[in-house]
Amino acid sequence: MDIRGGVVIVTGSATGVGAAAVEMLAGKGCNVVINYTKSEAEARETQKRCEALGVQALLCQADVSQDANCRRMVAETMSKWGRIDGLINNAGTTQFVAHSDLEGLDAADFQRIYAVNVIGPFQMTRAVAPHMKAAGRGSIVNVSSIAGVTGGGSSIAYSASKGALNTMTLSLARALGPEIRVNTICPGFIQGRWLRGGMGDDAYEAAKAHQERATPLRKAGTPKDMAQAAIWFIEGADLITGEILMVDAGSHLGAAPLIAR
């Protein structure tokens, strides 16, 4: 798909992976929707960086767990440009709780995490689908996590929500073809303040060092790495749908097996 002059919505795009994605899209000549819930100042800075690249950037405060907010964001996008070529469902939340601490999570924690991480992408997909169908094409990319495959991650609720997002990707890919492709990226460790803030400095640095020492590619991922993979699904994967792509420097492979000599 040629995205120059097109329009892509990226949820949760004030900072981190989302901000990297809208800036990368803008650099390719694509107009973008920058979505945030609370980080207005950072969203405005991201908007400025995108517009400096010569495209239009629409700022939209919306909580993706609320269906009315999702529909409003899509309506505002259509009102401004009359088209939606891509959607990156990046907004997410978690709670950092050791998996062994079963009392550390309650039903409300699960419901909040699922509301953003699973229901939000579903609602955004539902809102954009009629417009993409009418245009005859569209690409949706969900930002999941290797936690949804390995069962690891910041909490049991988080890994369960990402597992649900992965299976929902398969369902939506079947339901929305042939016009709309739906794929997922599963990031591993991502450098940045979000993970550092949740893990704490010592655990974060230890995890980063482990990535750089023990993964096949010896690298700790960055927001730009994740954005690049997501955007590839939009502009460079016209024959791919229902795919779940690990973007983790190979950490899901585990340690290399011993080879008998």
Model description:
It is built from nine helices and seven strands; from the N terminus they run βαβαβαβαβααβαααβ. It is of the alpha/beta class. The chain has a single domain, classed as NAD(P)-binding Rossmann-like Domain (Rossmann fold, 3-Layer(aba) Sandwich). It is globular and about 50 Å long.
Topology (SSEs and partners):
Layout: E1 7-10, H1 16-27, E2 31-36, H2 40-51, E3 57-61, H3 67-81, E4 86-89, H4 107-135, E5 138-143, H5 147-150, H6 156-176, E6 180-187, H7 193-199, H8 201-214, H9 223-235, E7 244-247
Parallel strand pairs: 1-2, 1-4, 2-3, 4-5, 5-6, 6-7
Strand content: 5-15%
Radius of gyration: 18 Å
Structural class by sheet pairing and helices: alpha/beta
Which term fits the overall shape?
globular
Helix content: 40-55%
Low-confidence stretches: 257-261
CATH fold name, please?
A: Rossmann fold
Characterize the largest beta sheet: strand count, sense, and whether it forms a barrel.
7 strands, parallel
Number of helices: 9
Number of strands: 7
The strands making up the biggest β-sheet line up spatially as: 3-2-1-4-5-6-7
Q: Class, according to the CATH hierarchy?
A: Alpha Beta
Fourth CATH level, the homologous superfamily: NAD(P)-binding Rossmann-like Domain
| Mean pLDDT across residues | 95
**First-to-last CA distance:** 49 Å
Total count of domains:
1
CATH architecture grouping: 3-Layer(aba) Sandwich
Helix-strand topology string: EHEHEHEHEHHEHHHE
